[in-house]
Each structure stands twice: as C-alpha cells, then as structure tokens.
Amino acid sequence: MLSFIWNYLAVFLIILTVVVFVHELGHFLVARWNGVRVEVFSIGFGREIWGFTAKSGTRWRISLLPLGGYVKFFGDADAASATGDDRPMTDEEKAVSFQHKRVGQRAAIVVAGPAANFIFAILGLAGLFMALGQPVTEPVVGAVHAGTAAEAAGIKAGDRILSINGQVVERFQDIQRIVRLEIEHPLELSVRRGELVMAISAQPRVIQRQGVFGGQEKVPVLGISADQASTRIINHGPVSALGEALRETESMVRGTFVGIGQMINGTRDTDELGGPIRIARGAGEAAQLGVSSVIFYTILLSLNLGLINLFPIPVLDGGHLLFYAFEAILGRPLGERAQEYGFRIGLFLVLALMVFATRNDIVALPVWDVVKRLFS
User: What residue numbers bound the domain in which 331 lies?
Assistant: First the structure.
C-alpha cells in the first residue's frame, strides 16, 4: 500500500503540481509585468489548507483539491477571468485591474501560461540532453519479425531506410514516429540494400501492446527492430541541446495534432484519450523506471497542458484569446450574452471531454474485466 501511494498517488501529485505551478506562474509574472494586481495564486481548488500573503498582497495558497490551479486578478468577478467586477472603481484601482488593461496586454497575460509550459518543456529536454546525452540509432534494420508487414513487404535485416512517404529518415526514432502517425496510408519506403536503392510498399498492422508509461495502447507496427550496434549517445552542449529540444518539441506537437485529426475522422481509436487515472498510472510507471523517466513524463505533461489550453474553447486560455481576437477586430468586446453562452458551451465541452476520458481510464483498468465477467 505504501509503495502504491508513493509510486502512483504521490508522484502523480508532485508532477501535476510542478506542471500547474509553471503554467500559473507564467500568467502571474506577465500580469505583474503589466501592472495587474494578483489577488490569489492557488495550487488546487476549493478550501485553502495552507497559505501566506506576500507583501504585494497576493495570497499564495495550496487548496484541498489538487487537480489544477488558478490565479485571480484584481478586477475579476471569478478565478476564470470570464467576467469583470461590476462595482465602480477609482482610477487607481482601474490601473491595476486586469479587465481595464488593453486587449493586447490581456492577451499576453493569457498566452503566458501555455507559453511557460512550452518553455519549461524545451528547457527540460535541453537539460536532459546535456546531462544524459541523446541516444541516436541509425535507421538500419537489425531484425525483421515473422508474420509482420515488414516481412510481407520484403524488408530484410541490414536494409537502411532512407525515407518514408517522402519524409527523410535520419535515425531509427524517425521511423517509429512516422509509422505511428501514418496509419491512414500505406508506407512507401525508399530503402538502400548494399549499393541498390529500391522502393518498397508496406501496410503496418495495428496491434495492442503495453505503453511506455503503462496501460494498453493500439499502435501500428511495421515489424522491424533496430540494429543496436548502430546506437550511439550524442553529448550536447547548450546550443545543440536547445536545437534538439526545439526539434523534439515540434515533433511532439505535430504528432498531437495529427493524432487528434485522426480521432476526428475515425482513423485512430478515441480510447487513446486519457484522464487523471491514466495520467496517475503513467506517473507511477515512470517513477518505477527512474528519475530521468519522471522528468521526461513531467516535460511531456507540461507540453500537453500548454497545447490543450491553447485550443479555442471558452473556459480555456485559447477561448479567452478567441474573444480578445474578436475584440481587437470589432474595436469592442463581444456582448455579455455572447460571452456567457460561449463560456457555457466551453464548460460543457470541457466537462464532457473529462467524463469521456475518465470513462476510458476506468475501462482500461484490469478490474473492469472482472466486473464485466461478473455481470456477463
């Protein structure tokens, strides 16, 4: 029980707290830079269980429900910054009120949260590359597994894959990334075998397997393994580490958008969407793999939090930015009724997504199979 509490619950809460703190700190710092008074900086929701008031007047607090956080600006009627305080304000109060700042300043404050998550992820990846190096494997086939798409297509051990569907392959990790994303199309590979360069077509097969951080996942598999003898560790300095971190971040973001598009058109299974239970399970699996895996999992979660918050859904940061875009174009804010309906729709969408993701989490638990057998 103690092992479960530490490896899953405690590590999950630590990771989530770090990621949420980074996000809210981005909002906080840019708000203060723009002269906005911050009344509350909270990690978690609900009743305060610990806190203190800084000289600036900000109440820093840890709240009872540790599944998120918020900053409340002076002049907001609520923590979501959805509406302003209707009471009359003096000129001095308007000067430090979020709602009375220019639209560009408000947009900068809102976008600062996701931006902080991205910066944290990029710097974190760069730090890992400098501290541990970056494992890079040449795109050479070490083995072809029996009964797979690679065997059927005629791929052989020793083949060097040059490109897939027009995308240049520089390392074996590129093959894994492309195969996972190109599930809608057959793979057209350019392969060098000895002195001969040939074109090979293969259709990966979707299988269910254990994910890197726990849980079952459905993935397309080509059926090849890398030549481990061709793996090397690249030791990076600050500049090259930052460049590789930016490249990896871009690849993760692009992969996320491709995956979402495939879920929308039905190519990819929506069961891959996970909620807090799956995140906690992944955190526990990462903890058992070691500190570096926990750091990488934190980076991955930070990147996803920043990206999701930029979606143009009212209630999320992207929804605020959408309203500010309309305000900048029209020269005035949208009407109160339009904003109210927008936030209601946004709240419904977010809650529906949370319920659906949590349903996926529960169905993926081993105990669910026991329940199904009991009632079948």
Answer: 2-34+101-130+297-375
The neighbour count for residue 153, using CB atoms within 10 Å, is 19
User: Same structural domain for residues 214 and 186?
Assistant: yes
DSSP state for residue 55 in the 8-state scheme: T
Alpha helices by DSSP H, listed for 82-164, are 91-95, 103-132, 149-153
Residues serving a catalytic function are 24
Read off the pLDDT of residues 116-166 as tens digits, 9 standing for 90 and up. Answer: 999 999 999 999 999 988 888 889 999 998 888 888 999 999 899 999 988
Residue of 38, 13, 10, 9 lying closest to 24 (CA atoms): 38
Distance CA 224, CA 189 (A): 13
The model's pLDDT over 6-51, given as tens digits with 9 standing for 90+, comes to 666 788 888 999 999 999 999 999 999 999 999 999 999 989 999 9
Mean pLDDT across 252-281: 73
Nearest to 223 by CA among 139, 173, 153: 153
Helix (H, G, I), strand (E, B) or coil at 171: coil
Residue 273 lies in a domain: no
Question: 170 or 354, which is more confident?
Answer: 170
| Whole-number Cα distances in Å, 241 to 115, 144, 235 | 19, 33, 8
Residue 326 CB contacts under 8 Å (≥ 6 apart), including other chains:
333, 334
Whether residues 157 and 219 share a domain: the answer is yes
Q: Which of 233, 261, 277 is the last residue of a domain?
A: 233
CA distance 24 to 22: 6
- pLDDT of the residue at 313: 87
Strand, helix or coil for residue 313: coil
- pLDDT at 374 exceeding the cut of 60: no
Tell me which of 233, 255, 276 is where a domain ends.
233
Cα–Cα distances (Å) from 163 to 67, 147, 203, 228, in that order, read 43, 23, 15, 20
